[in-house]
Amino acid sequence: MSKKDIFKRKEYKYIINEIMFKNILSSIKKYLHIDEYGKETIYSIYYDTKNYDLIRHSIEKPIFKEKFRTRSYGKTDNHNLLFAEIKKKFDGITYKRRVGSDEKDLLSFLNDKKELSGNLSFYGEELCNKQIQKEILFFLDFYKLEKKVFIAYERESFIDDNNNLRITFDNNIRFRENDLNHNSTSYGKLLTNKDIYIMEIKLENAFPFWLINILNENKLFPVSFSKYGEYYKNIILKNTRIFEGVENV
Question: What is the pTM of this model?
Fold first, then answer.
């Protein structure tokens, strides 16, 4: 499972502390190796409607939900590519479709609806799929999406030799509501405590027995967690309620 333009897989998330992270990391290294991306900083900008309709629907835990974001792996001024992604989840299965290019080209595509240039590839992945470009532009126009928040975090990724299983650990999750671009540093306010890690298991088939044993040993159960959802619940909803309280005084 590489950074492909089309994904279909199951994803399970777990909230762990730093001690658990070190214990689990020691255990999984017997079966997995660090992937080609190593440790990296993920930059994401989430888009939504004026009234946050996408995330409001998502946190109600429906059978179907969707979101849109741009993503880069580090600052785009370091010549990193910028991706535009539609992520959907239906009945427990995650589907992701994306296109990518250099920042100027991708922003021209999003803002001016200009077709992406060239036949770019990234680790064997086609980045300028014309059908996906059409889907993204329709999605943006249908929902009238606008930038809402920048979220960044550090990620360590591990994978098996057959690329059928990937485990990621995200830490130091932070956000900002201004400077919504991918070419600045990843500064922001903490969204979760620094000793909290989000472990995510991504796979296409059943859990291997060794992984089930590790989860049982650490008494871990999957949780519903979204970084953008946490931002909405803890920042937007909280501030809205405070404002409403002041208005009613």
Answer: 0.90
